[in-house]
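S2.1 Query sequence (N-MYC downregulated-like 1)
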Amino acid sequence: MAESNDSVFVDVEKIYLGGKEHHVRTGCGSVSVIVYGDQDKPALITYPDLALNYMSCFQGLFFCPEAASLLVHNFCIYHISPPANILHYQQIVHRVSFLALSQEFLQLGAAPISPDDPLPSVDDLADQIIEVLNYFGLGAVMCMGVTAGAYILTLFAMKYRQRVLGLILVSPLCKTPSWTEWIYNKVMSNLLYFYGMCGLLKEFLLQRYFSKDVRGSAEVPESDIAQACRGGHAVLILVTCLFLQLLDERQGVNVLRFLQAINQRRDITSGLKKLRCRTLVFVGDNSPFYSEALHMITKLDRRYSALVEVQACGSMVTEEQPHAMLIPMEYFFMGYGLYRPCQLSDSPRSPLSPSCISPELLSPESMGLKLKPIKTRVSPEG
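Output structure tokens follow.
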């Protein structure tokens, strides 16, 4: 990485960690998939929240060395971005100024979806995933999603149970929108329709993603992450919400369609008990979806699920407190015979055994000491 007085230069190959982009045509539009790692290893697919792609939703987690070694050692990563969130990067020059980055992407980003194209439903988005798996010849996969992405992956797991080994859900949704969320989403939809990715809409999205400590207040200055989201600083590269800087009115139309699909989602609570894949739920206690995550964990089979509450954190635990995810994920993966190496190195394909997670590994007693000041909670009796 090289710096100048006016800008910070970014090596594009490093941004994408050596991953390769694929565009998979599905029955509901083209899907961008960034593949990183050894494709002989088991697959981990990720799905981002509203208005984000993998760079802005999962980069904090994958830039955490311990978490990256755990994930990359055991899996080949398939980052899925739904049609609304696609940003192409293969056409971008090898080195690009951070301050000019938005201009480059505005010229080379995803083409807007035609208004005449039918609005995809959440079921359409879930069905796209099976097409992606078939495209790459994948069998059963591990899944990781954030908020809207967590909902889509949960729905996918309910519809295609044999194709899901486990779920890692961050601030997940499972019910229809509350009146508050529905109105909130309608306001964002109107902003997108009339003004595109305007400043006020970014403020709404920041509230969706982050805790007050990150966003800042009159008493507490906003963090560098939030400042970077607003486009006021070129200090942090590859931070949460960089994607927001790369959207213009054209991509705003695309994001609007994803938002509309999520705002029309149905309640999938009744199907949660039927899930037999192991599920690990993370939620920040300052997330606007905190109560929904608590509701969801009570509806999952307690033999296969566990909840990790992260203090002083918003919805995007992957960006705000990625270190909080490490120990719970280690215990979670131990149930599959996976482990985190002391040093990342080439290794044979990691096994994914069907053995059940030992209850002791998910108990507050075994996890809490290592997770302080993070609260952990195994799902109570349903």
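The first strand starts at residue 9 and ends at 11. The chain has a mean pLDDT of 76.
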